[in-house]
Design goal:
It is built from two helices and six strands. The chain is α+β, with helices and mostly antiparallel strands and 109 residues long.
Length: 109
Amino acid sequence: MGAQYYGADSENGDRIDDPSEDALFMMVSDLNDVDNTFVVVQPDEDDPVWFASVAVSDEGGYEIVRRDTTRNEHEVTTATSINDIARDLTIWMAARDFPGRPTRQVSEF
């Protein structure tokens, strides 16, 4: 069974379906500058409209790319804290649209 919403794939062939923040932390921690230089997270579909990637930067740290064509977003940043990267990606991905996912309901008190 594939991912319900999205999958994370690393250059070395590791894959995690619907990764948690902890799983993203592990995948980024496993990156190196030799044979596992990036992780890509995107919907598990043929033509995904968004993706996020984390790559080892030549200057040290990581380059993070977030792209969502439905929202006309394209952001490239750098970071050194794997904890911050995993948290920020988890929050960013939670705001993406997924077919079949229940919509959020906001109630007024």
